[in-house]
Protein backbone atom coordinates (compact mmCIF):
# COMPACT_ATOMS: atom_id res chain seq x y z
CA UNK A 1 0.00 0.00 0.00
CA UNK A 2 1.31 3.46 -0.91
CA UNK A 3 2.39 5.78 1.89
CA UNK A 4 1.74 9.48 1.56
CA UNK A 5 3.44 12.54 3.01
CA UNK A 6 1.51 15.71 3.82
CA UNK A 7 3.08 19.02 2.79
CA UNK A 8 1.69 22.13 4.47
CA UNK A 9 2.37 25.84 4.27
CA UNK A 10 0.39 28.58 6.03
CA UNK A 11 -0.75 32.10 5.32
CA UNK A 12 -1.42 33.67 8.71
CA UNK A 13 -3.27 36.98 8.88
CA UNK A 14 -2.86 38.98 12.09
CA UNK A 15 -4.81 42.13 12.95
CA UNK A 16 -2.44 44.60 14.58
CA UNK A 17 -3.22 46.24 17.92
CA UNK A 18 -3.25 49.84 16.72
CA UNK A 19 -6.01 52.13 17.97
CA UNK A 20 -6.71 53.40 14.46
CA UNK A 21 -6.79 51.85 11.00
CA UNK A 22 -3.85 51.53 8.65
CA UNK A 23 -4.68 54.45 6.34
CA UNK A 24 -7.20 56.55 8.30
CA UNK A 25 -8.07 57.60 11.86
CA UNK A 26 -11.13 55.35 12.28
CA UNK A 27 -11.24 53.12 15.37
CA UNK A 28 -10.16 49.48 15.15
CA UNK A 29 -12.19 48.50 18.24
CA UNK A 30 -13.90 45.12 17.88
CA UNK A 31 -17.67 44.82 18.17
CA UNK A 32 -18.98 48.27 17.26
CA UNK A 33 -22.39 48.70 15.63
CA UNK A 34 -22.16 47.95 11.88
CA UNK A 35 -20.61 50.67 9.73
CA UNK A 36 -19.94 53.05 12.63
CA UNK A 37 -16.12 52.89 12.43
CA UNK A 38 -15.93 54.20 8.88
CA UNK A 39 -14.94 57.26 6.86
CA UNK A 40 -14.45 58.14 3.15
CA UNK A 41 -11.00 56.48 3.12
CA UNK A 42 -11.93 53.04 4.47
CA UNK A 43 -15.22 52.96 2.53
CA UNK A 44 -13.36 53.62 -0.73
CA UNK A 45 -14.92 56.95 -1.64
CA UNK A 46 -13.52 58.56 -4.83
CA UNK A 47 -10.88 61.21 -4.17
CA UNK A 48 -10.04 60.05 -0.63
CA UNK A 49 -6.34 59.55 0.05
CA UNK A 50 -4.65 57.06 2.41
CA UNK A 51 -2.15 58.18 5.07
CA UNK A 52 0.04 55.41 6.51
CA UNK A 53 -0.12 54.67 10.26
CA UNK A 54 3.52 54.60 11.50
CA UNK A 55 2.70 52.14 14.30
CA UNK A 56 1.71 49.54 11.70
CA UNK A 57 5.21 49.64 10.23
CA UNK A 58 6.79 49.34 13.68
CA UNK A 59 4.64 46.35 14.65
CA UNK A 60 5.38 44.61 11.33
CA UNK A 61 9.09 45.30 11.78
CA UNK A 62 9.01 44.01 15.38
CA UNK A 63 7.35 40.74 14.33
CA UNK A 64 9.86 40.36 11.51
CA UNK A 65 12.86 40.91 13.78
CA UNK A 66 11.48 38.48 16.37
CA UNK A 67 11.05 35.80 13.68
CA UNK A 68 14.59 36.18 12.32
CA UNK A 69 13.55 37.96 9.12
CA UNK A 70 15.54 40.39 7.02
CA UNK A 71 13.94 43.85 6.97
CA UNK A 72 13.40 45.47 3.57
CA UNK A 73 14.62 48.98 4.31
CA UNK A 74 13.13 50.40 1.12
CA UNK A 75 9.68 48.84 0.74
CA UNK A 76 6.40 49.96 -0.78
CA UNK A 77 2.70 49.20 -1.18
CA UNK A 78 0.91 47.70 -4.17
CA UNK A 79 -2.71 47.42 -5.24
CA UNK A 80 -4.24 43.96 -5.42
CA UNK A 81 -7.34 44.20 -7.59
CA UNK A 82 -10.39 42.07 -6.91
CA UNK A 83 -14.13 42.60 -6.88
CA UNK A 84 -16.05 41.39 -3.83
CA UNK A 85 -18.96 43.10 -2.03
CA UNK A 86 -16.91 43.52 1.17
CA UNK A 87 -14.12 45.35 -0.68
CA UNK A 88 -15.49 48.82 -1.49
CA UNK A 89 -12.41 50.10 -3.34
CA UNK A 90 -12.34 47.04 -5.64
CA UNK A 91 -8.68 46.70 -4.70
CA UNK A 92 -6.73 45.95 -1.54
CA UNK A 93 -3.61 47.88 -0.59
CA UNK A 94 -1.01 45.20 0.10
CA UNK A 95 2.65 44.39 -0.65
CA UNK A 96 3.77 42.05 -3.44
CA UNK A 97 7.01 43.28 -4.94
CA UNK A 98 8.79 44.57 -1.83
CA UNK A 99 7.29 43.11 1.39
CA UNK A 100 8.65 44.57 4.63
CA UNK A 101 10.10 41.26 5.94
CA UNK A 102 11.63 38.28 4.13
CA UNK A 103 13.54 35.03 4.74
CA UNK A 104 12.87 34.36 8.42
CA UNK A 105 12.08 31.31 10.51
CA UNK A 106 10.66 30.14 13.83
CA UNK A 107 11.82 27.08 15.70
CA UNK A 108 9.37 24.40 16.81
CA UNK A 109 9.50 20.81 18.02
CA UNK A 110 8.97 18.57 15.00
CA UNK A 111 7.11 15.28 14.79
CA UNK A 112 10.33 13.44 15.62
CA UNK A 113 10.74 15.39 18.88
CA UNK A 114 13.73 17.32 17.56
CA UNK A 115 14.01 21.07 16.96
CA UNK A 116 12.84 22.10 13.53
CA UNK A 117 12.91 25.41 11.68
CA UNK A 118 9.79 26.47 9.80
CA UNK A 119 10.91 29.03 7.25
CA UNK A 120 9.02 32.27 6.71
CA UNK A 121 8.98 33.34 3.07
CA UNK A 122 7.76 36.85 3.84
CA UNK A 123 5.70 39.11 6.07
CA UNK A 124 3.80 41.88 4.38
CA UNK A 125 1.50 44.68 5.52
CA UNK A 126 -2.00 45.15 4.13
CA UNK A 127 -5.47 46.42 4.91
CA UNK A 128 -8.32 44.13 5.89
CA UNK A 129 -11.55 43.96 3.91
CA UNK A 130 -15.02 44.38 5.40
CA UNK A 131 -17.23 41.43 6.13
CA UNK A 132 -20.51 40.06 4.87
CA UNK A 133 -23.30 39.30 7.34
CA UNK A 134 -25.56 36.64 5.88
CA UNK A 135 -29.24 37.01 6.79
CA UNK A 136 -30.85 33.62 6.18
CA UNK A 137 -34.29 34.85 7.28
CA UNK A 138 -34.48 37.55 4.60
CA UNK A 139 -32.28 35.63 2.16
CA UNK A 140 -29.78 38.42 1.71
CA UNK A 141 -26.27 39.47 2.69
CA UNK A 142 -25.42 42.76 4.40
CA UNK A 143 -22.04 44.51 4.34
CA UNK A 144 -20.30 45.76 7.50
CA UNK A 145 -17.26 47.93 6.71
CA UNK A 146 -16.04 48.42 10.29
CA UNK A 147 -13.22 45.96 9.61
CA UNK A 148 -12.31 47.55 6.27
CA UNK A 149 -8.91 49.19 6.65
CA UNK A 150 -7.96 47.45 9.89
CA UNK A 151 -4.19 46.86 9.66
CA UNK A 152 -2.97 43.34 8.95
CA UNK A 153 0.28 41.56 8.57
CA UNK A 154 0.28 38.37 6.52
CA UNK A 155 2.93 35.83 7.51
CA UNK A 156 3.61 33.44 4.63
CA UNK A 157 5.52 30.28 5.51
CA UNK A 158 7.38 27.91 3.24
CA UNK A 159 5.76 24.43 2.85
CA UNK A 160 7.86 23.02 5.71
CA UNK A 161 5.21 21.43 7.94
CA UNK A 162 4.25 17.78 7.65
CA UNK A 163 1.38 17.29 10.12
CA UNK A 164 -1.37 19.07 12.03
CA UNK A 165 0.79 18.81 15.18
CA UNK A 166 3.60 20.76 13.51
CA UNK A 167 1.09 23.33 12.21
CA UNK A 168 -0.34 23.92 15.70
CA UNK A 169 3.17 24.14 17.19
CA UNK A 170 4.07 26.77 14.56
CA UNK A 171 0.89 28.77 15.15
CA UNK A 172 1.36 28.63 18.94
CA UNK A 173 4.91 29.91 18.55
CA UNK A 174 3.79 32.77 16.30
CA UNK A 175 0.89 33.64 18.59
CA UNK A 176 3.14 33.86 21.64
CA UNK A 177 5.79 35.95 19.88
CA UNK A 178 3.17 38.42 18.65
CA UNK A 179 1.31 38.57 21.97
CA UNK A 180 4.51 39.13 23.93
CA UNK A 181 5.41 41.94 21.55
CA UNK A 182 1.98 43.49 22.16
CA UNK A 183 1.48 43.67 18.39
CA UNK A 184 -1.88 41.84 18.51
CA UNK A 185 -4.09 39.95 20.96
CA UNK A 186 -4.22 37.09 18.38
CA UNK A 187 -7.77 36.08 19.36
CA UNK A 188 -8.87 33.53 16.81
CA UNK A 189 -12.49 33.75 18.00
CA UNK A 190 -12.56 37.48 17.12
CA UNK A 191 -10.68 37.03 13.85
CA UNK A 192 -7.58 38.92 14.92
CA UNK A 193 -5.53 35.85 13.97
CA UNK A 194 -6.61 33.79 10.98
CA UNK A 195 -4.84 30.99 9.16
CA UNK A 196 -5.28 29.71 5.61
CA UNK A 197 -3.85 26.22 5.12
CA UNK A 198 -2.16 25.30 1.84
CA UNK A 199 -1.95 21.51 1.71
CA UNK A 200 -0.89 18.83 -0.73
CA UNK A 201 0.08 15.17 -0.49
CA UNK A 202 2.73 13.15 -2.29
CA UNK A 203 4.16 9.66 -2.07
CA UNK A 204 6.98 9.31 0.43
CA UNK A 205 10.29 9.84 -1.34
CA UNK A 206 8.81 11.95 -4.16
CA UNK A 207 10.61 15.23 -4.87
CA UNK A 208 7.81 17.05 -6.66
CA UNK A 209 4.97 18.62 -4.68
CA UNK A 210 1.42 17.47 -5.28
CA UNK A 211 -1.42 19.80 -6.31
CA UNK A 212 -2.29 22.02 -3.37
CA UNK A 213 -5.55 23.36 -2.09
CA UNK A 214 -6.13 26.32 0.23
CA UNK A 215 -8.43 25.90 3.22
CA UNK A 216 -10.21 28.98 4.61
CA UNK A 217 -12.63 29.79 7.46
CA UNK A 218 -10.44 28.30 10.20
CA UNK A 219 -11.06 30.11 13.49
CA UNK A 220 -9.59 27.79 16.12
CA UNK A 221 -6.60 25.52 16.48
CA UNK A 222 -8.92 22.53 16.83
CA UNK A 223 -10.70 23.45 13.60
CA UNK A 224 -7.35 23.80 11.84
CA UNK A 225 -6.25 20.34 13.00
CA UNK A 226 -9.56 18.77 11.93
CA UNK A 227 -9.48 20.50 8.53
CA UNK A 228 -5.93 19.30 7.87
CA UNK A 229 -6.77 15.67 8.63
CA UNK A 230 -9.95 15.85 6.53
CA UNK A 231 -8.25 17.44 3.52
CA UNK A 232 -5.34 15.01 3.68
CA UNK A 233 -7.73 12.06 3.55
CA UNK A 234 -9.81 13.67 0.77
CA UNK A 235 -6.77 14.16 -1.45
CA UNK A 236 -5.44 10.65 -0.82
CA UNK A 237 -8.85 9.18 -1.65
CA UNK A 238 -8.90 11.10 -4.95
CA UNK A 239 -5.40 9.95 -5.88
CA UNK A 240 -6.16 6.34 -4.96
CA UNK A 241 -9.28 6.47 -7.13
CA UNK A 242 -7.20 7.71 -10.09
CA UNK A 243 -8.74 11.20 -10.00
CA UNK A 244 -6.91 14.53 -10.07
CA UNK A 245 -6.69 16.95 -7.16
CA UNK A 246 -7.89 20.36 -8.38
CA UNK A 247 -6.00 23.48 -7.29
CA UNK A 248 -8.72 25.47 -5.59
CA UNK A 249 -9.77 27.42 -2.54
CA UNK A 250 -12.01 25.44 -0.18
CA UNK A 251 -14.13 26.55 2.76
CA UNK A 252 -14.18 24.50 5.95
CA UNK A 253 -17.43 23.90 7.83
CA UNK A 254 -16.32 22.92 11.32
CA UNK A 255 -19.82 21.94 12.45
CA UNK A 256 -20.20 19.39 9.67
CA UNK A 257 -16.45 18.65 9.57
CA UNK A 258 -16.59 19.01 5.81
CA UNK A 259 -15.03 21.31 3.22
CA UNK A 260 -16.42 22.47 -0.11
CA UNK A 261 -14.96 24.27 -3.11
CA UNK A 262 -15.29 28.07 -3.21
CA UNK A 263 -13.34 29.01 -6.35
CA UNK A 264 -10.35 28.03 -8.43
CA UNK A 265 -7.09 29.14 -6.83
CA UNK A 266 -5.85 32.48 -8.13
CA UNK A 267 -2.25 33.33 -8.96
CA UNK A 268 -0.62 36.74 -8.62
CA UNK A 269 -1.33 37.68 -12.25
CA UNK A 270 -5.06 37.25 -11.62
CA UNK A 271 -4.97 40.19 -9.23
CA UNK A 272 -3.19 42.58 -11.67
CA UNK A 273 -0.89 44.02 -9.01
CA UNK A 274 0.67 47.42 -9.59
CA UNK A 275 2.42 49.95 -7.28
CA UNK A 276 -0.02 52.07 -5.29
CA UNK A 277 0.22 55.62 -6.70
CA UNK A 278 -1.08 57.32 -3.53
CA UNK A 279 1.55 56.00 -1.10
CA UNK A 280 5.24 56.86 -1.09
CA UNK A 281 7.91 54.20 -0.46
CA UNK A 282 8.81 53.46 3.17
CA UNK A 283 12.44 54.10 4.06
CA UNK A 284 13.55 52.25 7.22
CA UNK A 285 16.79 53.58 8.63
CA UNK A 286 19.29 51.53 10.66
CA UNK A 287 18.48 53.76 13.64
CA UNK A 288 14.73 53.15 13.37
CA UNK A 289 15.26 49.41 13.09
CA UNK A 290 17.62 49.43 16.11
CA UNK A 291 15.04 51.40 18.14
CA UNK A 292 12.33 48.80 17.41
CA UNK A 293 14.76 45.97 18.22
CA UNK A 294 15.67 47.57 21.55
CA UNK A 295 12.03 47.41 22.68
CA UNK A 296 11.80 43.61 22.34
CA UNK A 297 10.41 42.01 25.50
CA UNK A 298 11.56 38.85 27.22
CA UNK A 299 9.92 36.14 25.11
CA UNK A 300 8.26 32.97 26.33
CA UNK A 301 11.27 30.61 26.08
CA UNK A 302 13.55 32.95 28.05
CA UNK A 303 10.83 33.73 30.57
CA UNK A 304 10.14 30.04 31.18
CA UNK A 305 13.84 29.33 31.78
CA UNK A 306 14.06 32.26 34.21
CA UNK A 307 11.01 31.17 36.21
CA UNK A 308 12.59 27.75 36.70
CA UNK A 309 16.05 29.02 37.65
CA UNK A 310 15.17 32.20 39.58
CA UNK A 311 11.94 31.17 41.31
CA UNK A 312 12.43 27.39 41.47
CA UNK A 313 9.09 26.79 39.78
CA UNK A 314 8.44 23.27 38.48
CA UNK A 315 8.89 23.07 34.72
CA UNK A 316 5.19 22.17 34.34
CA UNK A 317 4.08 25.34 36.16
CA UNK A 318 6.44 27.54 34.18
CA UNK A 319 5.30 25.96 30.93
CA UNK A 320 1.59 26.60 31.56
CA UNK A 321 1.99 30.11 33.00
CA UNK A 322 4.20 31.40 30.18
CA UNK A 323 1.95 29.83 27.52
CA UNK A 324 -0.50 32.69 28.15
CA UNK A 325 0.94 36.19 28.47
CA UNK A 326 -1.84 37.47 30.80
CA UNK A 327 -1.01 34.67 33.27
CA UNK A 328 2.70 35.51 33.08
CA UNK A 329 1.83 39.17 33.72
CA UNK A 330 -0.26 38.20 36.78
CA UNK A 331 2.56 36.02 38.11
CA UNK A 332 5.17 38.74 37.72
CA UNK A 333 2.95 41.41 39.24
CA UNK A 334 2.43 39.27 42.34
CA UNK A 335 6.09 38.32 42.73
CA UNK A 336 7.15 41.93 42.24
CA UNK A 337 4.90 42.88 45.18
CA UNK A 338 6.60 40.27 47.37
CA UNK A 339 4.28 37.26 47.01
CA UNK A 340 5.82 33.80 47.22
CA UNK A 341 6.34 32.59 43.62
CA UNK A 342 5.01 29.08 44.27
CA UNK A 343 1.90 30.43 46.03
CA UNK A 344 1.19 32.70 43.04
CA UNK A 345 1.77 29.78 40.69
CA UNK A 346 -0.58 27.52 42.69
CA UNK A 347 -3.48 29.96 42.35
CA UNK A 348 -2.84 30.45 38.63
CA UNK A 349 -2.53 26.70 38.01
CA UNK A 350 -5.43 25.75 40.27
CA UNK A 351 -8.35 28.13 40.79
CA UNK A 352 -7.59 30.28 37.75
CA UNK A 353 -7.65 27.35 35.34
CA UNK A 354 -10.74 25.90 37.06
CA UNK A 355 -12.71 29.13 36.66
CA UNK A 356 -11.49 29.52 33.07
CA UNK A 357 -12.86 26.05 32.31
CA UNK A 358 -16.16 26.71 34.14
CA UNK A 359 -16.69 29.97 32.25
CA UNK A 360 -15.78 28.43 28.92
CA UNK A 361 -13.16 31.08 28.15
CA UNK A 362 -9.50 31.01 27.17
CA UNK A 363 -6.72 31.80 29.70
CA UNK A 364 -5.73 34.86 27.67
CA UNK A 365 -9.22 36.31 28.34
CA UNK A 366 -8.68 36.54 32.12
CA UNK A 367 -9.42 40.12 33.29
CA UNK A 368 -8.01 39.87 36.82
CA UNK A 369 -5.50 42.67 37.32
CA UNK A 370 -1.98 42.10 38.59
CA UNK A 371 -2.51 44.65 41.37
CA UNK A 372 -5.60 42.88 42.70
CA UNK A 373 -3.96 39.46 42.41
CA UNK A 374 -1.01 40.67 44.48
CA UNK A 375 -3.33 42.20 47.11
CA UNK A 376 -5.29 38.94 47.26
CA UNK A 377 -2.18 36.85 47.90
CA UNK A 378 -1.09 39.26 50.64
CA UNK A 379 -4.43 38.73 52.42
CA UNK A 380 -3.65 35.01 52.60
CA UNK A 381 0.00 35.47 53.50
CA UNK A 382 -0.83 37.89 56.32
CA UNK A 383 -3.51 35.54 57.76
CA UNK A 384 -6.29 38.03 57.05
CA UNK A 385 -8.32 35.30 55.29
CA UNK A 386 -8.01 31.52 55.27
CA UNK A 387 -7.87 29.27 52.21
CA UNK A 388 -11.59 28.43 52.37
CA UNK A 389 -12.65 32.08 52.30
CA UNK A 390 -9.90 32.83 49.77
CA UNK A 391 -11.71 30.80 47.11
CA UNK A 392 -14.83 32.95 47.52
CA UNK A 393 -12.77 36.14 47.35
CA UNK A 394 -10.86 34.94 44.28
CA UNK A 395 -14.08 34.24 42.36
CA UNK A 396 -15.34 37.71 43.27
CA UNK A 397 -12.25 39.49 41.93
CA UNK A 398 -11.67 37.22 38.93
CA UNK A 399 -13.54 39.35 36.39
CA UNK A 400 -11.70 42.52 37.37
CA UNK A 401 -12.89 45.72 39.01
CA UNK A 402 -13.31 44.33 42.56
CA UNK A 403 -10.71 45.27 45.17
CA UNK A 404 -10.03 42.15 47.29
CA UNK A 405 -9.29 44.15 50.44
CA UNK A 406 -12.54 46.09 50.17
CA UNK A 407 -14.50 42.89 49.37
CA UNK A 408 -13.19 41.12 52.49
CA UNK A 409 -14.00 44.14 54.67
CA UNK A 410 -17.50 44.66 53.26
CA UNK A 411 -18.48 40.99 53.60
CA UNK A 412 -16.93 40.44 57.02
CA UNK A 413 -14.63 37.67 55.83
CA UNK A 414 -11.57 38.38 57.94
CA UNK A 415 -10.20 35.35 59.75
CA UNK A 416 -11.21 35.09 63.40
CA UNK A 417 -8.04 34.73 65.51
CA UNK A 418 -9.80 34.97 68.88
CA UNK A 419 -8.19 31.99 70.66
CA UNK A 420 -10.48 31.98 73.70
CA UNK A 421 -13.66 32.23 71.63
CA UNK A 422 -12.45 29.54 69.24
CA UNK A 423 -11.57 27.21 72.13
CA UNK A 424 -15.14 27.42 73.47
CA UNK A 425 -16.56 26.55 70.05
CA UNK A 426 -14.18 23.59 69.69
CA UNK A 427 -15.08 22.28 73.14
CA UNK A 428 -18.76 22.29 72.08
CA UNK A 429 -17.89 20.51 68.79
CA UNK A 430 -15.94 17.84 70.71
CA UNK A 431 -18.83 17.38 73.16
CA UNK A 432 -21.35 17.02 70.31
CA UNK A 433 -19.30 14.51 68.29
CA UNK A 434 -18.40 11.64 70.65
CA UNK A 435 -18.03 9.08 67.83
CA UNK A 436 -15.38 11.14 65.98
CA UNK A 437 -13.57 11.70 69.28
CA UNK A 438 -13.66 7.96 70.09
CA UNK A 439 -12.42 7.09 66.60
CA UNK A 440 -9.52 9.52 66.92
CA UNK A 441 -8.54 8.33 70.39
CA UNK A 442 -8.88 4.73 69.15
CA UNK A 443 -6.08 5.35 66.62
CA UNK A 444 -7.92 6.70 63.57
CA UNK A 445 -6.11 10.02 63.33
CA UNK A 446 -8.05 10.98 60.17
CA UNK A 447 -11.16 11.37 62.32
CA UNK A 448 -9.89 14.80 63.34
CA UNK A 449 -10.93 16.01 59.88
CA UNK A 450 -14.61 15.68 60.80
CA UNK A 451 -14.05 17.80 63.90
CA UNK A 452 -12.17 20.44 61.91
CA UNK A 453 -15.03 20.53 59.41
CA UNK A 454 -17.65 20.97 62.14
CA UNK A 455 -15.59 23.78 63.68
CA UNK A 456 -15.25 25.57 60.35
CA UNK A 457 -19.02 25.25 59.86
CA UNK A 458 -19.66 26.68 63.32
CA UNK A 459 -17.37 29.66 62.60
CA UNK A 460 -18.85 30.21 59.10
CA UNK A 461 -15.47 29.37 57.60
CA UNK A 462 -13.69 32.30 59.23
CA UNK A 463 -11.52 30.48 61.76
CA UNK A 464 -7.80 29.95 61.38
CA UNK A 465 -7.35 26.27 60.35
CA UNK A 466 -3.90 26.04 61.92
CA UNK A 467 -5.30 27.31 65.20
CA UNK A 468 -8.22 24.84 65.03
CA UNK A 469 -5.83 21.91 64.60
CA UNK A 470 -3.59 23.12 67.43
CA UNK A 471 -6.46 23.49 69.90
CA UNK A 472 -8.10 20.19 68.85
CA UNK A 473 -4.85 18.31 69.35
CA UNK A 474 -4.43 19.85 72.79
CA UNK A 475 -7.98 18.84 73.82
CA UNK A 476 -7.97 15.35 72.28
CA UNK A 477 -4.51 14.40 73.52
CA UNK A 478 -4.99 15.34 77.18
UniProtKB/TrEMBL annotation:
Keyword Ligase applies: yes
Record key words, sorted: ATP-binding, Ligase, Nucleotide-binding, Protein biosynthesis, Transferase
Enzyme class, first EC level, given as a word: ligase
Record keyword Ligase present: yes
Asn/Gln amidotransferase domain boundaries: 329-476
Alphabetized Gene3D superfamilies for the sequence: 1.10.10.410, GatB domain, N-terminal subdomain (1.10.150.380)
Example of a GO biological process term: glutaminyl-tRNAGln biosynthesis via transamidation
Enzyme Commission number(s) of this protein: 6.3.5.-
Pfam families: GatB_N, GatB_Yqey
SUPFAM superfamilies in UniProt: GatB/YqeY motif (SSF89095), Glutamine synthetase/guanido kinase (SSF55931)
One example GO MF annotation: asparaginyl-tRNA synthase (glutamine-hydrolyzing) activity
Swiss-Prot/TrEMBL catalytic activity: L-glutamyl-tRNA(Gln) + L-glutamine + ATP + H2O = L-glutaminyl-tRNA(Gln) + L-glutamate + ADP + phosphate + H(+); L-aspartyl-tRNA(Asn) + L-glutamine + ATP + H2O = L-asparaginyl-tRNA(Asn) + L-glutamate + ADP + phosphate + 2 H(+)
Superkingdom to which the source organism belongs: Bacteria
Known function: Allows the formation of correctly charged Asn-tRNA(Asn) or Gln-tRNA(Gln) through the transamidation of misacylated Asp-tRNA(Asn) or Glu-tRNA(Gln) in organisms which lack either or both of asparaginyl-tRNA or glutaminyl-tRNA synthetases. The reaction takes place in the presence of glutamine and ATP through an activated phospho-Asp-tRNA(Asn) or phospho-Glu-tRNA(Gln).
Family from the record: Belongs to the GatB/GatE family. GatB subfamily.
SUBUNIT field: Heterotrimer of A, B and C subunits.
Protein name, UniProt field: Aspartyl/glutamyl-tRNA(Asn/Gln) amidotransferase subunit B
Amino acid sequence: MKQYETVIGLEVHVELATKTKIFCSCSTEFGGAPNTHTCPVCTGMPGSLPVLNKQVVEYAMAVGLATNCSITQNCKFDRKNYFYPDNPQNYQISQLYKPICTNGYVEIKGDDGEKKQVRIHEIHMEEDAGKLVHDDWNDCSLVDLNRSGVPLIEIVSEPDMRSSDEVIAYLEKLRLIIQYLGASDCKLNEGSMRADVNLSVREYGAKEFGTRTEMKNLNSFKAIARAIENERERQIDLIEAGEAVIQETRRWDDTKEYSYAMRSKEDAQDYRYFPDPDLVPIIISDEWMAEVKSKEPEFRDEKMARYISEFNLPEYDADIITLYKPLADLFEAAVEKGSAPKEASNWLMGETMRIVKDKGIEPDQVKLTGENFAKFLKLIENDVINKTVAKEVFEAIFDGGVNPEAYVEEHGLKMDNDTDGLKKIIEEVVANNPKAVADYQGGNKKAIGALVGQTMKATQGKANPQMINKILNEILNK
